[in-house]
Amino acid sequence: MSLRRPLAIFGLSLWLATSAAAQTPLAPPPGAPAPVAKPAERAKPKPPAPPPAAAKKPEPKPTPAASATPSPSPTPDNPNVDVVFGAYQRGEYKTAFGLAEPRAKAGDVHAMTMLGELYSNGLGVKRDYAKAADWYRKAVDGGDREAMLALAMMRLGGYGGSSSDKQPDKQEAVKLLASSAKLGEPKAAYNLALLYLGGQVLPQDVKRAAELMRLAADAGNAEAQYALATFYKEGTGVEKNMEIAVRLLQAAALADNVDAEVEYAIALFNGTGTPRNQPGAVALLRKAARQGSPIAQNRLAFVLVNGMGAPMDKVEGFKWHLVAKTTGKGDPGLDEEMGKLSPEDRAKAEALAHRWLGDKLDAAAAAGQPNPQAKAAPQAAPFLIPQGGVPGMPQTPFGTPPEPAAPKR
Fold it and tell me: Is the peptide bond before 382 cis (omega within 30 degrees of 0)?
């Protein structure tokens, strides 16, 4: 859960100019009458009498200095919210609960949402969906968009109703998501888009789904950016446009969406919707492979073994081939190539794979044999296969139509 924090604004002050201006009248003594004025100025030196005032400093002035700290207290709301959220982020859930409860009772909607979060997840307090829903509802009444989103997801899951009502309330959930999305909550827009895609809770409407995905994508939601990219690649709810799709993939990849990294690497490698950049594609595949993407691992193995976009490195390439095989991403072509390795290079590749995986490397993969559980990675022109689609949609590669149903006899 993310709570909003205000940004600090820097201000400038001019003090030296005024002090310099104050010194200028003291410097030029204007003629003889000025000595008469000087006794008057020496009346000011009477402030040397401040030594007694300096003696008074120790008594009352420490207290004014302490009272300078309360002066920021006119704005306790935002700092206190940060204190609550800071405790939550550090995992100090009991502290967060203790700080949030009095604020929530005083009417702070963000603190109400925090209590709902703590109760619904059993953090720092016993899990209690009814209490979570109560606090979320109070925050919803106060207009908090995050509470609307949280309560909507509870109602979709069948939580947050009366003790006797364990059924999902899809209509209430849809209303809450719509309200939250209208207030600018990107996750609500994304989830509502998925409901329009699924066609079960709401009538299927791919155009409306695309509009909602665009709202979430424009707000920086990486999952929405990736999903909307697939819409533009396939022409789902929007006019097909590979250049827009690739820009969205790039944005999502920059936000560390692993699926988008793989898709964007594919576009860069093939020069689809963007200028070809094979070294950049290999760098992205390497990053996604290290983040655990089996498809990236499989395709990285291919480019390294064949020296495409990077210097040929068969040992490193077959390391990633072995790693990918443990998740079912086998490649018979790479298995065949691995059989041609020298015993020394095979041993090096296996050692690197063992180091990466620990004990997960099975005997079949280590021997370079096809894994019976693994399906061969299909080859598409030119060579890379995009990763599957959006939640709620058929998981078919981009540009590949779903397999036709078996003919009826």
Answer: yes
